[in-house]
Design brief:
mainly alpha; 3 helices
């Protein structure tokens, strides 16, 4: 099964893109615009950081599932489902972070 190689490459691209986006948002984040009242995790860079943290958790969960699962075929199915849902959530968090940053930049103009 080619699942580990395919999704490891995709995960690498997502994490690399997330790190690049976090760096861009951190440098270009308007300092005069206050973060939302709920806290800094709901700010644009905070959402990107949450997406990166989610990917790290998925890597750790993948290692644990592979080590502890009694049946390799069912472990592969569970891992695939977990990674697909996690990747979807990560993409959503990255998109919300980028769109939030764009909105804050437009509001400050």
């Amino acid at each position: 099964m080619q699942h580990p190689q395919t999704y490891a490459g995709l995960r690498t691209v997502l994490i690399g893109g997330g790190v690049a986006a976090l760096g861009f948002l951190s440098l270009h984040h308007a300092p005069q615009v206050a973060a939302p009242a709920a806290g800094s995790l709901l700010s644009a860079p905070g959402r990107v950081a949450l997406g990166i943290a989610l990917q790290v958790l998925l890597v750790v969960a993948g290692v644990l599932i592979r080590r502890r699962a009694p049946d390799p075929s069912s472990a592969a199915r569970v891992l695939l489902l977990l990674e697909l849902v996690g990747d979807g959530c990560t993409v959503l968090l990255f998109a919300l972070g980028v769109f939030g940053s764009i909105r804050q930049a437009l509001d400050s103009v």
